Amino acid sequence: MKFPLLLSASLLLVPGMAVAASAEADDAADQGDPILVIGKADGYLAADSATATKTDTPLLDTPQSVLVVTREQIEDQAHRSLGDVLRYVPGVTLGQGEGNRDQITLRGQNTTADFFLDGVRDDAQYYRALYNIERVEVLKGPYALIFGRGGGGGIVNRVQKTPSAEALFVGAEGSANSFGGWSAALDVNAPLSAAGALRVNGFYEELESHRDFVDGERYAVNPYIAFQLSPDWQAGLSYEYVHDDRVTDRGIPSLACSQPCTPGPLPGNRDTFFGVPGVNRTGLDAHIVKARLDGKLAPNLAWSTTLLYGDYDKYYTNVYANGAATSPTGTVALAGYTDPTTRENFIAQSNLVADFALGATAHKLLFGLEFSDQSSANQRRNAVLSSGSLNLANIVYPTVTFPAINRNTTSEVNVFSAYAQDQIGFGEVIDLVVGLRYDRFEIDGVDIQAGDRRFSRTDSKWSPRVGLIVKPRPEMSLYASYSRSFLPRSGDQFLSLSPADQNLAPEEFTNYELGGKWDIRPGLNVTAALFQLDRTNATTPDPANPAQTIVVGETRTRGAELALTGRVLPGWQVSAGYTYQDAKLRGNDSVRLAQVPEHQLALWNRYDVSPALGLGVGLVHQASQFAAIRTAPTVTRLPAFTRVDAALFYTVSEKLELQLNVENLLDEEYFSDAHNLNNITTGAPLSARLTARVKF
């Protein structure tokens, strides 16, 4: 294990993430708030973020589109996973992720790796739970200045719950749904002294589904200890263990067209399982250690640190539809494989933030260093099936073996980054954010299956960012921003680098954005943005053969976003958003990007009828989208849908709350997402979840 050696070396960097660059961190600790500051929020509305600029900055002064889903909203909507949260974020499209991982499309860019934990990369492929999460932040547009390579369409950051030295409290939650699934969670905060506390979060969940044979279990525990070392210094150490074991489900296939047409999902098979019971399975065991140090070297000089070590051991075994159904009662071709992966991540991040005045200008200057070492090993064995197809008229599942290794690779990725950013205030009206990041990305690997063929590549790239903010009134801001990012040819997961890909330049992403933010009144905010995202040297899975990639050249996504968040009335909270996106190949409008609906709308309301009784209602609308890049009229299109959800909240006492959530209230039949042309996820029918929360 490399962790002890790398830890010793990283102490020379004193790595980390800036969380509080002002006296607010000290004030929060003195008042008994979390020892490590995570940002302020009022109900559904977040006031600031330490992620978008790596400094504690109000969202009103952040020149980019940022959507924050607070803990209160997560609980009100009974979200159980990151995917649940992101379904209510317009501009984000969920991918199926081959039934074993989080996968999303942001502004036309598909990714399995642009996920972060407290601003530090968390790029292994797995499903992320919310039991220990205070808020989820979605930052849109490529911002490699902050996050390094990737992040082409944006990133998703989870902010962890932190300990408080104020008082002992215990929270417990039990939940069950109408499919038969259930879960239990515990949140305990225990002060250890006037300046130290321990917080332990844990949960267990039995998974059940409307889909035949699809079930599973997952559990996790996360102890987190933090101390106020002095009035100016705070430290924290967190360990998380995650176990996930579930059926791998890749949904249903398309229905083949016998004439020129746009094929769609196979009808009448919402619950049919196109895998093999007892064979399709995915499992994960993860150990994640995070250490943080935040403090002040001088009254206007803040130093903050993070070390993150992750050890991920994962496998998934898939049998799936490998072609369209010949007819509603015909046959569907099957294929399969098993794929074990181990990943060891070590990431060290260090930031220095200085606040000072220079003439008539105010400056918040950030200097940062980041180092990461990521080791991966992956194998794949293709399945041999006793029958290569499934007869829909009389389903008999085949037997499966995995006799030979078809892929066997190891890789080592080292990244060194240095960056600088200056937030410049010209009086009370104009702010300018300028920054530049340098990344050196090195990958060395061995393709053992190809006779120990070695592959390697080094990319050194500069990523700039410029943002101009004009505040005609203190509660209003207008902004313009430009940023650039890149993705190395080894892709999201560093599994291989073919001789052909090895010679291709990295993909690059350039974002232009105009927007405005307005606090209509305290607690209620509206935002709007226009954006254009250009991608060069683009590649995509071949719709006819998803295992192969094709070079498509340059793509462009143009769009607009609107959002309203906060308290409309004292008892009425709302989170609403709309996104329009036009994503296509530049120079050929007939080629449309995959999994980018033109229109998305999400709306959630909570209205408290009385101190004891509350009502919730929401909807998600998604226009039709193509399951893969549309290069021909025969590419599968998922139809548009609108899903309505509702909730009832009842406070029995100060210690007990009851909550009933109903999803898909109108029992809409819909297809929520896809992985490719013939792996399409069916939306769940009407279902209910009852939750009880106890607080001491």
What does this 3D model show about the protein?
- The structure is a single chain.
- The strands form eight sheets. This protein has a 22-stranded antiparallel beta barrel. A five-stranded mixed beta sheet has the order 5-11-12-9-10. A three-stranded antiparallel beta sheet has the order 6-7-8, with no helix packed on it.
- 4% of the residues lie in helices and 59% in strands.
- By secondary structure, it is mainly beta.
- Strand 15 and strand 16 form a beta hairpin.
- The model is unreliable at 1-32 (pLDDT under 50).
What topology does this entry show?
Blueprint: H1 3-10, H2 24-30, E1 41-42, E2 45-46, E3 48-49, E4 57-58, E5 66-70, H3 71-76, H4 82-86, E6 92-94, E7 104-106, E8 109-111, E9 115-117, E10 120-121, E11 133-140, H5 144-147, E12 154-160, E13 169-177, E14 182-193, E15 196-208, E16 215-230, E17 233-246, E18 281-298, E19 301-321, E20 331-358, E21 361-382, E22 384-385, E23 389-391, E24 400-401, E25 407-426, E26 430-447, E27 453-473, E28 476-487, E29 507-521, E30 524-542, E31 545-569, E32 572-585, E33 588-592, E34 599-608, E35 613-622, E36 625-626, E37 637-638, E38 641-651, E39 656-663, E40 671-676, E41 679-682, E42 687-695
Parallel strand pairs: 9-12
Antiparallel strand pairs: 1-2, 3-4, 5-11, 6-7, 7-8, 9-10, 11-12, 13-14, 13-42, 14-15, 15-16, 16-17, 17-18, 18-19, 19-20, 20-21, 20-23, 21-25, 22-24, 25-26, 26-27, 27-28, 28-29, 29-30, 30-31, 31-32, 32-33, 32-34, 34-35, 35-38, 36-37, 38-39, 39-42, 40-41
